[in-house]
Structures are given as C-alpha cells and as structure tokens.
From TrEMBL:
SMART domains: HTH_GNTR. This is GntR family transcriptional regulator. CDD domains: WHTH_GntR (cd07377). Keywords: DNA-binding, Transcription, Transcription regulation. The lineage of its organism: Bacteria, Bacillati, Actinomycetota, Actinomycetes, Streptosporangiales. PROSITE patterns: HTH_GNTR. SUPFAM superfamilies: Winged helix' DNA-binding domain. Residues 11-79 form the HTH gntR-type domain. Gene3D superfamilies: Winged helix-like DNA-binding domain superfamily/Winged helix DNA-binding domain.
Amino acid sequence: MLITLDLNDPRPLHDQVAEAIRRAVAEGSYAPGDRLPPARDLAEALGINANTVLRALRDLRDEGVLEFRRGRGVSVLSRPDPRSVLEERLRSLLAEAAQYGYRHDDVIDLIREIS
C-alpha cells in the first residue's frame, strides 16, 4: 500500500491516513478479507506516530470498513461506499483550492472547463 501524506494539508494526519486507506480499499488494492500491514509498520513508513495510524484504523473500523481481530491484525471487512470516497476526495480538493484562494464556484467552473 502506497500512502503519502501532504504536510501542507490542514486536515489532521489521521484523517489523511484514513482517506488513503479508504481509497485503496475502494479502488480494489485490498479486497474484503485482506490483512493490512501492522500499524507500527505503516507509521514507520510514513514517519508518523503509531497512535496516529491507530486512530485512523479505529475510525475505519467504526465506519465498517475494517475489522480488528486479536492475534490476526486488521483486515478489510467491506468496500466503502463509492460516493463517500468521492465526497472525501472532493472535500480534500475544495480545502486545497481554498488554500490557493479559489472559491467553490471557481472549482466548479474549472471542472466544467475540463469536462
């Protein structure tokens, strides 16, 4: 799993980690039943605290995307709703656009130009 974090993103790191895992599952990189790498390994690869990764994993467990099994680690329970994944990506896009001074209407106009 390739996760990258944007340190300029105003969202908390655990939200970014959860979004990246959610997207990987939605895109099929992980299927239901697949095990994720240990939180400690993910944290080390990302250069962040293991508690940050654990918080992201707990959020995904609460959403029904992941399940924790004692002695077996964390595995994918179900694919997230594609609409919720898209909504999360749009929120991220709008937040980034706001950092550059773009309003929501400006982003909509850009999307129309590209489509």
